[in-house]
Automatic annotation (TrEMBL):
Keywords: Membrane, Transmembrane, Transmembrane helix. Belongs to the purine-cytosine permease (2.A.39) family. One of its GO terms (cellular component) is plasma membrane. It holds the Pfam family Transp_cyt_pur. InterPro entries: Pur-cyt_permease (IPR001248), Uracil/uridine/allantoin_perm (IPR045225). This is NCS1 family nucleobase:cation symporter-1. Residues 1-26 are annotated as: Disordered. PANTHER family: NCS1 FAMILY NUCLEOBASE:CATION SYMPORTER-1 (PTHR30618:SF6), NCS1 FAMILY PURINE/PYRIMIDINE TRANSPORTER (PTHR30618). It comes from Nocardia pulmonis. GO terms for molecular function: nucleobase transmembrane transporter activity. The lineage of its organism: Bacteria, Bacillati, Actinomycetota, Actinomycetes, Mycobacteriales. It is found in: Membrane. It is a multi-pass membrane protein. The chain crosses the membrane at residues 79-98, 118-138, 169-192, 204-222, 242-263, 283-305, 325-346, 367-385, 397-416, 441-461, 473-491.
Amino acid sequence: MSETVAPPEEGVGTPARASARSESRAYDPRLTNADLAPLERQTWGAYNIFAFWMSDVHSVGGYVTAGSLFALGLASWQVLVALVIGIGIVQLFCNLVAKPSQRTGVPYPVICRSAFGVLGANIPAIIRGLIAVAWYGIQTFLASAALDVVLVKLFPGLAPYAVVAEHGFLGLSMLGWGSYLLLWVLQACVFWRGMESIRRFIDFCGPAVYVVMFALCGYLIARAGWDAIDLNLSTVTHTGWSAVPVMLGAIALVVSYFSGPMLNFGDFSRYARSFAAVERGNLLGLPVNFLVFSLLVVVTASLTVPIYGELITDPVQTVARIDNTFAIVLGALTFTIATIGINIVANFVSPAFDFSNVDPRKISWRAGGMIAAVGSLVITPWNLYNNPEVIHYTLETLGACIGPLFGVLLADYYLVRKQHVVVEDLFTLSPRGSYWYRGGYNPAAIIATLLGAAAAVFPVLTAGEVTGMYTAAQYSWFIGCGVGLLGYLALATRGRFRLPIPETP
């Protein structure tokens, strides 16, 4: 049995120690490659983590989500309370999921080997990879749709080619195909250059959107005046105790929106030079950044009513109404780039690690990313996006599994193993390894995941048919996470699946 690696002092990276040890003890090639092995150097600071969250929040999807919170029939102060609580929960969970990867220097599918087994970790990796591929395609489609708006505005003669019935193939117009493939290639190029290029890209994306957002907001204020600002995008209909369930739903919506990046966060926190840098970056990027962005969104959206006579919640559509060609191009391209940024950090990098983890000898990180990219094209994501039933029964069902995976990881690292990981044993197929369990699979983690997924999926699939399930479906992530965490804790600490946890020094 390898010596247990305790969490290092702040600022001292376990990966450096692990790297030194690996010189004398080779990792099994069936479980490792240069991309999955512990990092030798961790260089990201708090700003890089901050920029990661800016890229994740500052998108068309983030804009619409933030705006929808102010249209729930709540008073503005109630929305702000829900936002603070919701994003505070996200910050807490992100700090928790960041620590094991930052301390060991390994990505999510590798750290999952401690809970699921060195082979069983492919189960959460594949689930997460499939979800990411689908949403990668959908986000690319949404970005290409924004680009279509700009192209038609600048070149009206292209309008007929934006109609599927006249010039379409497999459900997408000719112009749509051109825009989609262009963005598909651009994202692949950024990804192919490696994590350092991705870091520089996301360092630029988030601040760039802020510049455009403030400029857009200033332009609208100049036209409508300060008196036109209204922080309520709909009539306040919920007061007193009747507002509590709606506020709880808003909190759940915030957490659910960030559920994917929360689970993926270890893939990025592994690059941080210290856990303190992660905490500072999360503080700036989540509570501070999300609140500022949300207020900016609601002010901008509210100003569209007196100026354009209707509420416009899509920033690209708002930009398209400006009577200035340069402003239209700059604004729409900025939001397009922002969507590319969130797509890369949320739906490209992570499945690359996931698919590489399946067979590290044959699938590098870059190859894993290209598998995800090709898969996102093959599934024709525009047809998925335009079919709510498919999304409901496929993507939402898979998405309900995110909570249990999160719960199992936290239970294993914090409650069962008390933050101790044997780094070398994450990369060995020896039956004597700490994470071999039963043939490389940990039954406790698999059963807990199945229980949590079943508990989370049931309200999602029966919403609208079984009394109370529509409300319960809003909290599917919490249900899955809680059942997965408690189920794993119970199975791993008692009974036939109890884990033989060695004494820690």
